[in-house]
C-alpha cells in the first residue's frame, strides 16, 4: 500500500490592521505582535512533521508565517504559489464595519473581474492536484488565507460554496465558527484516486 499524501493548509497569523479595513491583497499588511506569536506556535506545531516542501501565498503575511515554519526545516525554502493567494475582492480597502453591515457577503453582485467562491475552489483544487502528483506519499505545508481554507472545508463536507450562502461551520464539524488565524487544516489522501474525499483534521496550536 502506498504512503498517504498530506497537505497542511496553514492560515496566516493575525495581521496588524489598526485602520480596521479589509486588507485583501494590499501589500503593506504584515503580522501583528500577536500574529507573530501565533505563527511561532504554528511553526512549533509543524516542527516534527517530515515536510518535503513549504508553499506560500504571495502576500507578506503568509510569507512571514511560512518563515516561522521554515525555521524548523532549514533544508527547505519557501515557494510562492499564486493558487494560494487571498481572494480578489472589490471590497479591498473598505472598512470592516461596512462589510459587517452587509453580513460579510463579499461575493454577491460583484463585477466578473473579481473572484467567486467557485474560482477559489478551482485554484485550490489545482494546487491539490499538483501537490498529490509532485509530492505523492509525502507531506507539505501550504500557507494561505481564511476563505481558501473555509471553502476547502466545505467541499470536503459536501457543501458547494456559493455567493450569499452562509454555512454554519460548527454544525459541519469545525470546532470554531471559522478557520482561525495560524490554524492548521490537515488533509490526507490515502490513494491517488482523483475523486477521493480526504481525511480532515483542524488544529489551532495556541
Rg result:
16 Å
Tell me the strand order in the biggest sheet: 3-2-4-1-5-6
Please write the CATH class name: Alpha Beta
CATH topology: Rossmann fold
Span between N and C termini?
35 Å
Q: Number of DSSP strands?
A: 6
The proportion of strand residues reads 15-25%
How much helix is in the residues?
25-40%
CATH superfamily: Phosphoglycerate mutase-like
Number of domains: 1
Largest beta-sheet characterization: 6 strands, mixed
Q: Please tell me the overall pLDDT.
A: 97
Contiguous helical run count: 5
SSE order in H/E notation?
EHEHEHHEHEE
Given the C-alpha coordinates, what overall shape results? globular
| Helix/strand class | alpha/beta
Return residue spans where pLDDT drops below 50 for at least 5 consecutive residues. none
- The CATH architecture category equals 3-Layer(aba) Sandwich
Helices and strands, with pairings:
Elements: E1 5-11, H1 33-46, E2 51-56, H2 60-70, E3 78-80, H3 96-101, H4 117-134, E4 139-144, H5 146-156, E5 184-189, E6 199-203
Parallel strand pairs: 1-4, 2-3, 2-4
Antiparallel strand pairs: 1-5, 5-6
Helix pairs in contact: 1-2, 4-5
What does this 3D model show about the protein?
- The structure is a single chain.
- This protein is an alpha/beta fold.
- The protein has helices at 33-46, 60-70, 96-101, 117-134, 146-156, and strands spanning 5-11, 51-56, 78-80, 139-144, 184-189, 199-203.
- It has one domain (5-203): Phosphoglycerate mutase-like (Rossmann fold), CATH 3.40.50.1240.
- The protein is built from five helices and six strands.
- It is globular, with a radius of gyration of 16 Å.
Amino acid at each position: 500500500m502506498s504512503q498517504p499524501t498530506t497537505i497542511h493548509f496553514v492560515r496566516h497569523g493575525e495581521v496588524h490592521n489598526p485602520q480596521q479595513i479589509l486588507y485583501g491583497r494590499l501589500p503593506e499588511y504584515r503580522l501583528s505582535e500577536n500574529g507573530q506569536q501565533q505563527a511561532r506556535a504554528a511553526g512549533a506545531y509543524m516542527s516534527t512533521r517530515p515536510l518535503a516542501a513549504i508553499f506560500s501565498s504571495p502576500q507578506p503575511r503568509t510569507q512571514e508565517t511560512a518563515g516561522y515554519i521554515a525555521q524548523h526545516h532549514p533544508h527547505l525554502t519557501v515557494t510562492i504559489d499564486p493558487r494560494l493567494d487571498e481572494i480578489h475582492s472589490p471590497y479591498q480597502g473598505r472598512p470592516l464595519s461596512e462589510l459587517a453591515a452587509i453580513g460579510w457577503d463579499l461575493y454577491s453582485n460583484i463585477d466578473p473581474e473579481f473572484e467567486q467562491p467557485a474560482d477559489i475552489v478551482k485554484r485550490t483544487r489545482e494546487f491539490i492536484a499538483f501537490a498529490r502528483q509532485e509530492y505523492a506519499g509525502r507531506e507539505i505545508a501550504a500557507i494561505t488565507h481564511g476563505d481558501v481554507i473555509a471553502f476547502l472545508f466545505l467541499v470536503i463536507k459536501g457543501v458547494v460554496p456559493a455567493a450569499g450562502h452562509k454555512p454554519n461551520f460548527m454544525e459541519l464539524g469545525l470546532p470554531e465558527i471559522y478557520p482561525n488565524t495560524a490554524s492548521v487544516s490537515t488533509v490526507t489522501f490515502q490513494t491517488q484516486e482523483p475523486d477521493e474525499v480526504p481525511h480532515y483534521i483542524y488544529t489551532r496550536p495556541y
